[in-house]
Design goal:
By secondary structure, the chain is α/β, with parallel strands linked by helices. It is 35% helix and 17% strand. The relative contact order is 0.12. The mean pLDDT is 95. It binds 3-phosphoglyceric acid and magnesium ion (MG). The site of magnesium ion has 2 residues, from loops.
Length: 398
């Protein structure tokens, strides 16, 4: 581990600069999914309980250095106040005199929210001067933004070197969950990787075949593997130019002893839409005008059997076109199976990635998973075996 937690810090009377990820979806000014906000509440509450003064630093969207009202963090105040059950004050800039004044007049029990760090163009350049200006506002740095830890930015990386630094509760939970899934997992360990394209998950697949016992591939990317095996996939989404790469991944898996599971039967339609007429066919019988939108019941049986034998599961990406009924069937059924095994204490089931969490929520399985990451890109990079700069900066700190 090598990083400190809030328990290692003396917080009483201290201004604690907390880097959070509250990059939540907004529709006409209203937060449509407050998960990320609710998940940082324990950190804020623990700092307040220890007599500390939480000062939140966060980005919102990608304003590229422009001050844009529709990307102001001010809009999130009501949701933050509900989650923290306390008053949230606001400073219209994340550095400077106004922010200093707000930080020094913060009352016990209150939280200060600083404006979008990305209103400064230098934030995303990991600029040390911007980090130094931020450091003036606090005595301690606490990073609770695992989902932004793949970015080396002033507020996630440079700042961690300027103040005594620690991980927040959510950061701790994310790192522990991921460590138990891929770092030192109970075996057998199974990964489910789905989604549209092999090209976006190449490094991920390459890393996983070295680490997991079973690699279940679903979604559009499974089609590319079927093509690599010489099968026809009709008019299905497939990256035909990636077929040699898919073949190399299969060859590597052969060497490492990782078993790759592709669909043995497929749900085929002619149209990419909900309730399109469809049929179940063996994977080697996709018609020329057929489009594969889901894995079939035989495949699902194989997947369920593997889940039964597994001790650990890590899941990223849906198995089919889950946004269209009934092509969410394999994803839903497999997710519910994993959830039941997790609930029974037989499986450590961890999932992450934007689409994945949406799919698991839709299936009703999310609540029984052992851990659901709040991260999209950071979860993927972690699964790829990369060092996340935001985490590394915490570990380096004395
Ligand atoms: C996310 O929403 O995935 C994180 O907040 C990171 O945002 P970014 O991709 O704009 O850096
Ligand atoms: Mg992102």
């Amino acid at each position: 581990m090598g990083w400190k937690t809030l328990d290692d810090m003396d917080l009483n009377g201290k201004r604690v600069l907390v880097r959070v990820d509250i990059n939540v979806p907004l529709l006409e000014g209203v937060v449509t999914d407050s998960t990320r906000i609710r998940r940082i509440a324990p950190t804020v509450r623990d700092i307040l309980a220890a007599g500390g003064r939480p000062i939140l630093l966060a980005h919102f969207g990608r304003p590229s250095g422009e001050r844009r009202e529709n990307l102001s963090l001010k809009q999130l105040i009501p949701t933050l106040e509900r989650a923290f059950e306390t008053r949230v004050r606001f400073a219209a800039d994340c550095v400077g005199e106004g922010a200093k004044e707000a930080a020094s007049t913060l009352q016990p029990g209150e939280v200060l929210l600083l404006e979008n760090t990305r209103f400064h163009a230098t934030e995303t350049k990991n600029d040390p001067d911007l980090a130094a200006a931020m450091a003036e506002l606090g005595d301690i740095y606490c990073n609770d933004a695992f989902s932004a830890a793949h970015r080396a930015h002033s507020s996630t990386e440079a700042l961690a070197r300027l103040l005594p630094a620690c991980a927040g509760r959510l950061m701790q939970a994310e790192l522990q969950a991921l460590e138990s899934a891929l770092g030192a997992p109970n075996r057998p360990v199974t990964a489910v990787v789905g989604g549209a394209k092999v090209s976006t998950k190449l490094e991920l697949l390459g890393n996983l075949v070295e680490k997991v016992d079973y690699l279940i591939i679903g979604g559009g990317m499974a089609n590319t593997f079927l093509v690599a095996k010489g099968l026809s996939v009709g008019i299905s989404l497939a990256e035909r130019l990636m077929k040699d790469t898919a073949a190399q991944i299969m060859a590597k898996a052969e060497k490492t002893g990782c078993k790759i599971i592709l669909p043995s039967d497929i749900v085929v339609t002619e149209k990419f839409e909900s309730h399109a007429p469809h049929q179940v066919l063996p994977a080697d019988q996709c018609p020329d005008n057929g489009m594969i939108l889901d894995a079939g019941p035989e495949s699902l049986k194989v997947i369920n059997d593997i889940f039964e034998q597994s001790k650990t599961l890590i899941w990223n990406g849906p198995l089919g076109a889950f946004e269209f009924e009934p092509f969410d069937a394999a994803t839903n059924a497999a997710a519910l199976k994993a959830a039941a095994l997790a609930r029974a204490g037989r499986l450590t089931a961890v999932a992450g990635g934007g689409d994945t969490v949406a799919a698991l929520n839709a299936s009703g399985a999310a609540g029984d998973f052992t851990y659901i990451s709040t991260a999209g890109g950071a979860f993927l990079e972690w699964m790829e075996g990369k060092t996340l700069p935001g985490v590394a900066a915490l570990s380096r700190h004395e």
